[in-house]
Amino acid sequence: MNRFILTLSCPDRPGIVHAVSGFLVAEGCNIVEAQQFDDETTGRFFMRVEFVRMSGAPISAAELTRRFRAVSESLAMQARFWDAGHRLRTLILVSRQGHCLNDLLFRHRNAQLPIDIAAVASNHRDFYQLTAGYGIPFFHLPVTADTKPEQERKLIALIDEHAVELTVLARYMQILSPALCERLAGSAINIHHSFLPSFKGARPYHQAHARGVKLIGATAHYVTTDLDEGPIIEQEVTRVSHSMSPEALTEAGQDLECRALARAVRWHAEHRVLLNGDRTVVFAS
After folding, report:
1. pTM of the model
2. I need a surface site. Which of 4, 60, 90, 138 has the fewest CB within 10 A?
3. What is the DSSP letter of 177?
4. Cβ neighbours of residue 242 under 8 Å, at least 6 residues apart?
5. CB 189 within 8 A of CB 220
6. What is the DSSP letter of 223?
7. Which residue in 168, 187, 195 sits closest to 103, CA to CA?
8. Are 121 and 93 in contact (CB under 8 A)?
9. Residues 264, 170: contact at Cβ < 8 Å?
10. Is 16 helix (H, G, I), strand (E, B) or coil?
């Protein structure tokens, strides 16, 4: 039995669910999970269906996508089938804050994330030993303002060489060029702190402490050319107290970052996140 996932979006109209379920029945499939959303503000319909193909010869997700084309074209759909058993080959980028990297490596080893970490790359050597302890290749890609174009060419070569399908910026403190952002569109996830009010630049948790914030948070989002403003996948927030030191705020914030990023990575890898313009539809499990 082959297990697959269908994701789609299209202009809303009657008959969409009927067309999808009819196709799956004709293909000898049994639906095990289905979620849908009608966005009344945009008039678009979104759907995720997980199913098992119970009969017929083995088939690929690409072939199902091809067979579904008559349905998708008739309804102006953006639709794709995915092999539910495929683990996305993932590259993790990190700089000198290793909490998110450590969390992802641990969750990966304990089968909590449906990904295959192909490599870790960094502009520093700090986490070579941590990565080696998990048996994962580590690549040191130092960068300066003058060498940034060459460093990004090496990064792209690494992505191609390892057939990377998902890139995770786990506190990677480098701004990606517009060209690289375009190359990774829809397949790169970043994590950053999110405060009310917002504090940018160095030592944001110390800035937040100085202003006496009462809430701190973290946002996981897709990478775009607009820095830290890509479509949001997941957010975490917690209340903090005047009694907490800047170090305590930093510790709490790092925990939020780990949790938000891990959920975003898992939902993306399970094809639960559909783009809806500058927003996302997340069919969370």
Report:
1. 0.94
2. 60
3. P
4. 212
5. yes
6. -
7. 168
8. yes
9. no
10. helix
Residue with tokens 């049994």: 30
Dist CA 4 CA 129 (whole Å): 37
How far is Cα 280 from Cα 234, in angstroms, rounded to an integer? 10
Task: Convert the pLDDT of each residue in 31-88 to its tens digit.
Answer: 999 999 999 999 999 999 999 999 888 899 999 999 999 999 999 999 999 999 999 9
| Chain mean pLDDT for the chain | 95
Are 172 and 95 spatial neighbours (Cβ–Cβ below 8 Å)? yes
Pairwise CA distance, residues 114 & 217, whole Å: 25
> Which helix (DSSP H) or strand (DSSP E) does residue 282 occupy?
strand 279-282
Q: For 40-111, list the strands marked E by DSSP.
A: 44-53, 78-83, 88-94
* Cα end-to-end distance, the chain, whole Å: 22
Q: Catalytic: which of 12, 39, 126, 228? A: 228
61 HSE (CA, 13 A, CB side): 15
Task: Indicate the DSSP class of residue 231.
Answer: P
Mean pLDDT, residues 229-249: 94
Give the Cα separation of 271 and 192 in Å (integer).
22
Beta carbons of 105 and 117 less than 8 angstroms apart: yes
Can you state the angle between helices 99-109 and 246-269, rounded to 10 degrees?
40
Answer yes or no: 226 catalytic.
no
H or E segment and range at residue 3: strand 2-11
For residue 180, the surrounding DSSP H or E stretch is helix 178-183
Beta strands in 135-240 (DSSP E): 138-140, 166-169, 188-195, 215-222, 232-239
